[in-house]
């Protein structure tokens, strides 16, 4: 049987998330580099139309894994469905987006067939015949090339933004779509999920802000947030924060940027005392211009900054507020 | 409720990391601390015990230095500790670590196992879920609230982009805990004193070796990431830096 790459995409209410399209792009790139066939699978209940949508892309085949027990999502049902499918098809490589949902079931799925997942990858490269997957370690301070030391199927999850969805190639003709009715027996599903909800009304929509001033642990105390607020006001922007600041209750949760908060792409993003953990970076790396102020010269935030100031933010921000005010009034 | 908390010692947040000679791991002559989400997992276990009584047991795998994490946990109120002590545990992948834990607790019975949602060093976010599968237990990840019910628990899962979901579960179960689920406590002086007399069971590598097997994945090379962006570092006295920055934002980046 020829080698295949299977991309398992993630859908919610009949729509794929962006990182699923990005993972399909990763699949096309890997298929081109290995000569392996690319296939995709959508998992859920009533996902045939989504499978049709994906079949327009450049790939060999699309599967719709169907069962009424796959809705709502549970790790038990997803792991059982995909285990059946993967065990029968034996793809060499299984790619998925590194979302909260995939994190919830992929380690279980891989373990159930005594395999492993290299998770949260940002790229790959070929070293001879060996595939190496690149992932960030130590909160993004270092990177690692990781290989599989077990037999296929190999599971890999890709980080949000690792590949570009606009690079996804369309196919010359629609790929065949096959519906696979998976058998999930009674008693397999143990968890009882309730409705998905949003905590409170989102008071601020940071995705619309053109300028964002964000604070991290480096702000040290709640009272110091006032200074950052003044800078945001002088710039005519919004104030935001990394997760620890919102966890401490210094700013409300709806001002949080990152994987568990909002994803933004403003014209200007000013990061004050933010080290740049992966979970924060994925929420703001699309910003056009990034300024970082941090006392630690090795902070990962500097990797993606356009302008960097290594120093104490308490020294830098007050004169910065003055300069911004001058620039704004001076024209 | 009898709760096991899996904890890990990781490099301190601002520790300067240097690569070892083979470029496969970091040099370990640095300061370490408890993995932050694990501290929240411990706190949640202590709170559950205070509400519903029971026992809190902490477990870690790592060299002698990792015992510090267990000592701190005992000082905060954990009842006993298990230390899988060997340098080799540092290099295990998530699958092998979970298998080592499962082997070390095979004679115990727990209602719940907590882990932090991911570690600050490897960042795999897998050990808890793998452990659940090995134990044959249900699991839920990225948990922000736990409420005991008559027949099990109701947990609040964090989803992406500000969404949440309640999930009803039976016990025993594995939960991976999100940072910020609670407010961390400090150890008291009395707690620190009492910790010295609390039981700490050591497990050697040979005792669990047969259960671990080999790693299924391998770090071939560890390195400082290549910059993808040209970063301009602004230097000088704060006032000058501020001036330069505003100038650049106006004239180069054109965002002001």
Helical content band of chain A: 25-40%
Distance between termini of chain A?
68 Å
What is the CATH C level class of the largest domain in chain A, in words?
Alpha Beta
Secondary-structure class of chain B: alpha/beta
CATH superfamily of the largest domain in chain A: HUPs
- The computed structural class of chain A is alpha/beta
CA radius of gyration of chain A is: 22 Å
List segments of chain A where confidence is low: pLDDT < 50 over at least 5 consecutive residues.
none
Largest β sheet strand count, sense and barrel closure of chain A: 9 strands, mixed
Low-confidence runs of chain B (pLDDT<50, min 5 residues)? Answer: none
Strand order in the largest sheet of chain A: 9-8-7-10-6-1-4-5-11
Question: How large a portion of the residues of chain B is in β-strands, by DSSP E?
Answer: 25-35%
Globally, the shape of chain B reads: globular
Query: Which two chains touch over the largest interface?
Result: A-B, 95 and 79 residues
Question: CATH H-level name of the largest domain in chain B... which superfamily?
Answer: HUPs
Number of distinct helices of chain B: 7
Number of domains of chain B: 2
Number of individual domains of chain A: 2
Work out the radius of gyration of chain B: 21 Å
> What is the overall pLDDT average of chain A?
93
What's the quick description here?
Chain A has about 325 residues and is α/β, with parallel strands linked by helices. Chain A has eight helices and 17 strands.
Features:
heterodimer, A: 331 residues, alpha/beta, Rossmann fold, 2 domains, nine-stranded mixed β-sheet, five-stranded parallel β-sheet, 27% helix, B: 256 residues, two-stranded antiparallel sheet, 13 strands, 29% strand, globular
